[in-house]
Amino acid sequence: MNKIVKILLILITFLVCLETKIPNPYKVLGIPQDANEEQIKTGFKKRSKKYHPDRNKSDPRAKEKFEKIVNAY
Predict the structure, then answer these.
(1) Angle at Cα 23 formed by Cα 64 and Cα 59, nearest 5°?
(2) Higher confidence at residue 50 or residue 1?
(3) pLDDT averaged over the chain?
(4) Residue 1 needs a FRET pair 20 to 30 A away by CA distance; which of 29, 33, 38, 58 works?
(5) At residue 1, does pLDDT exceed 60?
(6) How many Å apart are CA 70 and CA 73, to the nearest integer?
(7) What are the pLDDT digits (tens) for 3-17?
(8) In terms of DSSP H, where are the helices of the chain?
(9) CA torsion sign, 53 to 67 to 37 to 3?
(10) Phi-psi region of 31 (alpha: psi -120 to 50; beta: other; left: phi over 0)
(11) For the chain, what is the radius of gyration of the CA atoms?
(12) Alpha carbon of 67 to those of 19, 22, 36, 44, 51: distances in Å?
């Protein structure tokens, strides 16, 4: 992908997040705004393992956190 397309995608994502009050998906996944597909996948796997409800039975907000991660991905 060329730079202009990446910048436009980032801008569109940012504007959609502002409009719908959804947290920035890059921030939710713990990755930089200019992340490539591999970094996005790695960020998702790392965060989904960390916050999966089955691994965090004592945390009542684990399911909510996990859903945010899935939606961000």
Answers:
(1) 25
(2) 50
(3) 85
(4) 29
(5) no
(6) 5
(7) 888 888 888 877 776
(8) 3-20, 25-29, 37-51, 62-72
(9) negative
(10) beta
(11) 14
(12) 20, 12, 22, 12, 9
